[in-house]
Amino acid sequence: MFNFRIITCGDGTDIIDTMLKTPYSSLTPSQMEDYIEMDKKPAYMERVKEKERKKAERERKIAGNPLYRMACALGFA
Fold first, then answer.
1. Which of the residues 22, 23, 36, 76 could staple to 71 if both were Cys, CB 3.0 to 4.6 A apart?
2. What number of H helices and E strands is found in the chain?
């Protein structure tokens, strides 16, 4: 069972409703492929967000480092 449902609007856009669940038995093979593909996307997006958060944290720590500040002031960095 998928923990979301893809709702297609009249203009062709897809909306993912996470409040609804979709049983495997209610899907056709082509719909199953769409659901499997959509199931992978949130996990990928979560990994990208975590990577960006770690990068920002690392840059914040480097910028707060007094040796890095001194190197910037002297024109080395």
1. 76
2. 2, 2
Q: Is 22 left (phi over 0), alpha (psi -120 to 50) or beta?
A: beta
Q: Which two tokens stand for residue 62?
A: 């480097």
Looking at residue 19, what is its pLDDT? 92
Tokens in use for 6? 């893809």
H-helix or E-strand containing 70?
helix 66-74
CA dist., res. 61 & res. 59, Å (int): 5
Which position has the token pair 């007094």?
66
- The kind and range of the H/E element at 14 are strand 14-17
User: What type of residue sits at position 40?
Assistant: K
Q: How far apart are CA 49 and CA 58, in angstroms?
A: 14
Q: Is the pTM of this model over 0.90?
A: no
Structure tokens belonging to residue 37: 């593909």
